[in-house]
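Q: Structure tokens for this one, please.
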Amino acid sequence: MSKFDVLIVGAGTGGVMAAAQLKNANSTLRVGLIDPADTHWYQPAWTLVGAGTYNYKKTARPMASIIPHGVEWIQDKVTTFDPAKNSLSTEKSGDLGYSYLIVAPGLQYDIDALPGLREALDTPYVCSNYLNPEKTWEVLQNFKGGNAVFTQPSTPIKCGGAPQKIMYLAEHYFRKSGKREKTNVIFATPGSIIFGVPDFARTLNGIIAKRNIHFKRFYNPVAIDSANKTVTFKFIAPSGSDCILTKEDRLHETLKGDTEITIPYDMLHLAPPQSAPDFVKQSPFAVKEGPGAGWMSVDKGTLQSTEFANVYGLGDVVNVPTAKTGAAIRKQAPVVVKHILAGLANGQASDTYEGYSSCPLVTGYGKMVLAEFKYDNVRDSDPFLTKFVDTAKEQWSMWILKKYGLPWLYWNRMMKGKM
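A: Here is the predicted structure, written as tokens:
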């Protein structure tokens, strides 16, 4: 059985970044990186692809070109973990051993968790930037007017702001293309607020009001009827809430009982339900029950497994109370790497992850709010940037950062373990 100093599951943002940082710190380490994919995607740009303002092909690179120098790429799938033996099993490569393990496989899309979604995605009216951003752009261009519905599930999702980013861009596109006056733009979310951090929420609520966007709180999508082009929501306001379910005749909503409402759509964009990969759900690393069930159980500061001292989690798969974003990984990876390097040297690291995440909220063509925050929804904006601009307001400079700066930093710094 091959044994690695550090074995990493997943060659996404977290896996590649951690592998590069480990080899940069100690080139003699034997580092293995397991991932079956042929292509590595820069998914943060898919919002822009869906709005017709970024080239989809530029978001992809061959996986072989991304694997850090000196790292062994095992192009395979993990099937099971055996942390008692410091090993895991793969589909084709047999068992692999490790001194330290990093679990960073991202998450999976549970298309069938929302009844009717799979069938609806085959129609020309339903799209998702998470799955096929080029189709989103086609749907926007072909849209003639009516109800444009944007929604998301109650499950955790990667890039929690993505469903509203494309909604803002679509609304702007409808105005530019002369379709806005005959369009109802609807943002329906299971959540109670537009954004968790007050400074950014104030800006977004102002945009929603100014641009006459219908904001539906506590709307959890439960079914799609693609034959009749309707989406049904369950109203999930907590008992005693002052939010009362009412229908808007302009949107042609229909009520069923006290908690279900159906809205017809002429286009529908949504984030699919999401969960931890099955091989993580079924592993000894998973949270067993409660809201985080299935996700990887880690200490929220060190990202160390709560059960196994030589195992760490990284990225979307971990159960920590912050947004699942590439920006979060940028702060998580160095913490994990430092703890593993210290452990290999029989020492201890004091570095901790404070929950940093970032959501570049594109609010239109040429406009963006840069929402940076940490645990407990505390604003955590970059002190250098805020010397020059208020990142809680719509800024053209932040749009330039999103479209040009961040992709460059991703490919040339993050993927090379230099930040």
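A few notes: The radius of gyration is 22 Å. Residues 326-344 form the longest helix (19 residues).
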